[in-house]
């Protein structure tokens, strides 16, 4: 639906100038190109799952790294299975202005194209693939925020509901041709439908789980619990940046004619410049505020710019795209301490990046796209926010009062890797147990200054 | 040959419905698309060499990490050179129902296409590139299994023979149009031709080399020698998963018409769901058996699903593909302790993943493809297994009794990085020397419990 | 301009055999394919920024890793913004045999294509994207060479000038259609225009900055300061190798006809074999010279082969491409100790790889391309070398005598991560402070032998 609508839109808008595009001789090749675009761009979006995995692996403490690795790869597996079992149908099967599609297995049918009728536009499986990886991305947003204290199987159970039911239902409202799409709500590649959804789900999770032990002192002090591997976090950001070309570029949903190719090119360049703007703005602001240029703020600034441009990368000029990204970068520098003030413990900054900038990007669409209105954009953001917060709260609470969602204090202290996965991420390295609240034995080469607040890990 | 046959097959099967596909006006563009598909998908398969490198770097102990890095990148270099010097010709030059092609330099000739005759289907070099990266992948399977005790130059000498002679000869039997292909043996993208070949070569290597010191205790106990970097292993798995879209998707061997594009889409989606099925099945089984959800089993489960679907990703339904992968995931959880019981020391689980699931996937083809027969599939698996085991045993034994294949006990204890590469992988980190059999000095921050069995590395 | 010229060249050279290529019916699709090639190949080149980031993160000491991460990702952001604000125009806007284009914002105009005239050949933004990532690559070369002692903001200020002014001006001389292009200077994908430019900029930076403390002893001894993470360096090399397919393959600048597809295939295969040749040659030579097969020399050998083939990957035979790469690999093994003898402290070997092999590759073009002359190639190498050395020296010196370019001795000793970024790259790991010149306390599990020259980091 998403792409059918887009294809029609492109067709209508460009009809006067692109009469040649409907010519029969190129239509099989257009079909092939549309399909290949979904596949190549979908692979790039799948790659973002690795990006989230590396980013989060780098930003949690070493005692929880193996767990976050397993979560990030297995949630992608769950997204694939659930989107096949029900998600795709719920999102796209006969929504037609309504609130959701139907339950049931997705089944492809390409018979028409094999019989020479290419009006479907692309191979069915290529569209399924492209939409599935988006579903996985929404889920990836959650894992980082609730890391270091959630039970892995409870988290995965949550992912089943998020990818099988919650994500597809709200997705049907816009990309499935549902009521928000009929109102004119615009979200090109998912600032709201993907990123804010992950953000809202993460927000309810973080609130219901509570903060990590030792994060917020009794005197109101916020203890930094620094990430254990900055190059991995940087690699993750690079991967996400790379994958975002596919996320936004592929959301043109066609490559079979010159207009689509031009649009895809513009989208990719705007996406890139928004990332640049977000990163540089965050770096400058953090240097001014804190006199050091915090690397994780730079990384999150780039991601903030990417999230912000995602709602409308097709219409801004390059300068406007850079600015939209830059505002995202500034918002993230402000939002991180804001959530800490609320004692909402977001391990990797996912709320600041995906929720705050997802909203910002969606609300910024009318600045450069006259088809969008601030009111409709606000209605879409709010409706999806309320729905996802309510739905995910129910799921988190059901899990909490049945199987439980939080590991014990002892398990949290020792780290989820040992207690849940039975395996350390870095068993060969002598590690320093950062954070936590136990007694700190003075040993080895660790300086007294650090030991004072941080117990040693008896690795 | 591989693709010529496939193209003809596709052509014949779809001839009634696809009369338009042979139309002259699109043929140059079809040629371009076929070529571009080989290049893009080939790049993804090349990327799998990095995936193997990171997976294996994460699963060996820190004292052997630099060595495994060098092995993984240099074997890809060797594969490139040998496939140019002889491999491609041996595999594809005039096999015609026989057992091998001819020795000699590969030489491209695209004159016909430049003169306007596009019946060759694709640029010669694009096919060479795509086939070469498959050859490299077979070789990558071996390095992880025999890690931590093999001499690097002996290993690279083995790679020369594997990529230059052994892999191409058995490959010629099927993809080169040789006797197995004439019998009707089906292996779409190489469960047998690539993965089991690497697996058999690794098996003979692991047996002839013997186990690592300290792996198997005198009382029959199996000592875990845990991998040193789980995020790297996870990254490697993500890379392999991503690359597999190219491995299987590119093996459609065409993109110039709608039928190929549809087939490629189906293949990619089945590939993805098999990985999902393998991972989730392995995670659930390992949780039931061991009460913890071992992250490396999850990773190997995903890879097991990918190997299993590779023999026939084009015919199963999505549900069948998920199940084929899930059986692979279950097999890997069973196979890992099985090989340990036989005291065959497989450092990264390569035999369980690539050999066991390669066989499983090949034998599963007849379940969903009526053109395949269990007997023919079995003959292919067995013939290639016997050939590769005999041939690689000869090579390993010749190396063993000439230059030697195993490092000394002292070198193994200190780690190959220092003794063979002259460089540590992580020189800045204080490390704990895991495994080995020396006396254990009690020092620093290491707990007595671990020290009891593990000597400290004086890094 | 770069591609316009190339397209015309291809058109003229192949005119007799490719009459069909100008046929109207395929031209919109050719336009789409040219555009898509720029986008896909450009994404691969963007990915090289991550490759440089990981390579350099692996080759610096752990106390400077977070800083090098931030530098590598932020320089790519700066390149994007500056190439938009002025770089692209300076390089391509009306150069016509001259020395530079004009200042001013880049503005796309695809109106002709939308009106059905596809003679522009590709979407404007796709070309901008492809050229921008090349600009970023030149800048990435610099960061590794001057690592571990440069102030981050001064480095980024340098990047602004390099990517906004210096790179585009010299680029305009060749790819912009300027005076060197009119003389017949040939540099297919940038051995000189990208790699040697980064190399010259790094050379002046390394000289003006001076060597790291402790690198060169008073007795003339060179102290190795080993990189902290070899798997990351290996990953970086794999990423760069992968990205180079796009770097060179995309520089065919077209994909809309069979001749372009054939050329792209040949270019990618030659690129691959040059990397193989460089790596294997470097490994063999280093084994002979030093009796160990240094992994970083293997990695740099592969990169040396890649840089060397970049000036002319379209004309050599596969054997010649392998040899051109192999000579690059040999040069890098010779050049690394050569620069150390000159006490030019190049942290990652960037001068040996990008400068030396960039020159070698450019001078090697006439061996396989009869359109090139040694004299013209030499003039191009020298002119660009002199221009970039003078221009970058001015920038480095202005920065040195205004804001300063080098961190204090105390900051260098503690590491830039703490002093400039306020964050450690690996805070959880107990680290050994390698290099430096302070007093060495004997502590923990560190052997006396190492401690004698290396103080412990009180992490």
Describe the 3D structure:
Chain A has 459 residues and is mainly α. Chain A contains 17 helices and no strands. Chain A has helices at 2-14, 27-59, 65-92, 111-114, 124-145, 152-174, 179-183, 191-209, 230-249, 258-290, 295-309, 318-341, 350-368, 374-401, 409-414, 416-421, 448-451. In chain A, helix 11 (295-309) runs parallel beside helix 13 (350-368). Chain A is globular. Residues 3-26 and 434-459 of chain A have low confidence and may be disordered. Chains in contact: A-B, A-C, B-C. Chains A and C meet through helix 2, helix 9, helix 10, helix 11 and helix 12 of A and helix 2, helix 3, helix 5 and helix 16 of C.
Name the quaternary structure.
Answer: homotrimer
User: How many alpha or pi helices of chain A?
Assistant: 17
Largest interface: A-C, 82 and 76 residues
Approximate shape of chain A: globular
Largest sheet of chain A: none
Spatial extent as radius of gyration of chain A: 22 Å
Order of helices and strands of chain A: HHHHHHHHHHHHHHHHH
Strand content of chain A: under 5%
The N- to C-terminal Cα distance of chain A equals 53 Å
- Please bin the fraction of helical residues of chain A: 55-70%
- What structural category arises from helix and sheet content of chain A? mainly alpha
Unreliable sequence segments of chain A = 3-26, 434-459
Provide mean pLDDT of chain A, rounded: 90
Count the E strands of chain A: 0
